[in-house]
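Data deposition worksheet. Section B asks for the primary sequence of the deposited chain exactly as it was used as input, without tags or linkers unless they were present during the calculation. Section C holds the resulting structure in token form. Section D is free text for depositor observations; keep each observation to a single sentence. Incomplete worksheets are returned to the depositor.
Section A, Depositor: J.P.
Section B:
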Amino acid sequence: MLQERNMDDIDRKLINLLQEGLPLEMDPYAVFAAKLAVSREEIVERTGALMREGIIRRLGGVFDSGAMGYSSMLVGAHVPEDVFGDAARFVNAHPGVTHNYRRSGFLNMWFTLSTVCDEERDVFLEELRRRFGLTSVFPFPRVRSFKLRVFFDMEGA
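Section C:
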């Protein structure tokens, strides 16, 4: 179990900066360090601690898969509890999977999948079905894109 710590003002400001995105600079951590008047090493340490504590789940780019020649879709599946962990590890190992969530209800696994071609997608989904004995795996191709910008103001009241 991780030791919880209280976030201070620098943590809150750092989280806000990270939500806005990393600056396209050679050393984005140094840019944040200058803005927060702390050392680059402190920014790296704080970011790592926030990730280890689960406050920050992911730090990475968001790309337009369609513009890069990929086909992206949401997949819903019914995965029995006794194979759920193994199935999740299999899904998460695919380089085109960016999100994978457990949900309540019949379709208890939902993930996003981007592939170069329909054949790659079909082979992956068929292997998922075969390997774990799944009969309910439903691909939902993207028809329209909606991008919601969610920002949690860590400094606001």
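Section D:
DSSP finds five helices and four strands in the chain.
The CA atoms of residues 101 and 110 lie 5 Å apart.
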